[in-house]
Amino acid sequence: MQTIDTFSGESLEGNSRTARSYVRSFAIFAGKVFTWVSWRLERRRTRLALLNMTDEQLWDVGISRADAYREGIRSFLD
User: Pick from 15, 24, 36, 40: CA 20 to 30 A from residue 8's CA?
Assistant: First the structure.
């Protein structure tokens, strides 16, 4: 019974601050991961779009068919 009496409001308040700090840190981390994945997916979409372009469109952009193919087959993580 003595151990219950030794807890004070200060220690519980400190724990809630720590928990909020962890939640805030996780939210920041999750936001950065979401941004990174979104950026990678956008890059992948544009690479796949190169594969669907006609030779005239690639010529307008200044890319050869071989360059477009090489870029289009790159990995999601490249």
Answer: 24
